[in-house]
Amino acid sequence: MPGTMKAIRKMEAKPGLELAEIPIPSLGRKEVLVKVEAASICGTDLHIFKWDEWSQQRLKPPLTLGHEFCGTVVEVGDEVHNVRVGQFVSAESHVTCGMCFQCRTGQAHMCPRTKILGVDREGCFAEYVAVPESVVWLNNRRLLEPKIATLQEPFGNAVFATMAHDLAGQSVAIFGCGPIGLFSIGIVKASGAAGVFASDVIDYRLDLAQEMGATGLVNASRDSAVQKILDFNDGYPVDIVLEMSGAAAAIKDSFEVVRNGGTVTLFGIPARPVEIDVAEKMIFKNVTVYAMNGRRIFETWYRTRWLLESGVVNLRPLVTHVLALDDIDQAMHLLAAGQACKIVMLPHGDEVPAEALDDHGALHPVEISGPLHP
User: Fold this and answer.
1) Exposed / middle / buried, residue 345 (Cβ in 10 Å: 0-12, 13-18, 19+)
2) Alpha-carbon span 6 to 352, nearest angstrom
3) Could you read off the pLDDT of 343-356 as tens digits, one per residue?
4) Would you put residue 98 in left (φ > 0), alpha (ψ -120 to 50) or beta?
5) Could you give the C-alpha distances from 285 to 160, 243, 260, 264, in angstroms and in order?
6) Residues belonging to the active site
7) pLDDT tens readout for residues 40-85
8) Could you give phi then psi for residue 204, rounded to 5 degrees?
9) Which domains can be identified in the chain, with CATH numbers?
């Protein structure tokens, strides 16, 4: 499709991002072009904005950022057979090879050849994005508004890590109340946990944790997280710990506060190696340890869809800001200050009226006729 578009780009190997005018992506034969209606910012994007050590080793500017989005299909390649123009879609951000051992044994989320949108290939912080048909996920607009549909990709991380456990009637401690930790609180609460105890070092996040259903809150910068969680749980260690922060102190506290025979899931990513007394804190306590990353493609997406479409988990309190692409600097500074949870950007700033939809929540073909670029 001819024309140009706005996009948020990492143009040079230095801190910061730029709003640029670039050509609308051309399509491969197996790709679809999506008009981005909503895109949400991830912690990974903040790392790239800061241009930290990980970003310097991984990214090759110039590149359009972003991997969480939803939008309407406006064009399809010649060899696309299962996606049509007008459908409301999101996408799995991990473009996998489909041929390695992991891909062929149901573990595509571990594919060593993965290319991630907005990290290894052009991303979605733009008016349009091109993605392979193989990663497209169909949404029903009548059940998921764009500001929630864009959250399915990160929410799936929390679904994967949290629902690996039998949660009903269990006491659960969650370390780290960033988006994934907050998503997890909603899932744990909806799953019938006996107690949901949340720890963070920022009061703003703890307020959101309470709104998502946490029954006990501790600011670990002021109080002992281990002692407070024991107090919340009538003096007993907890059954399950979800470590979502990656902070060394929180990882160590996770193994202190879990009961003998309990379970610790490590999902947060430490910036440096963390020292743990394996004998005392794992082996002699008979602790089960899960080290998890990403989500199962596409198994987790089906669970994610049900949790959100049914209303069992409500993510609206976590959409703390809705901004335009032009406001990217403001968005990044809010995240860096810990004064935002999920920031959603609306590249076009428009909404689709209900009368424009068919019975499946897709646009009627007439709605996408004529020029595709304003």
Assistant:
1) buried
2) 20
3) 999 999 865 554 55
4) left
5) 25, 18, 5, 11
6) 44, 47
7) 999 999 999 999 999 999 999 999 999 999 999 999 999 999 999 9
8) -55, -45
9) 4-151+315-368 (3.90.180.10), 158-291 (3.40.50.720)
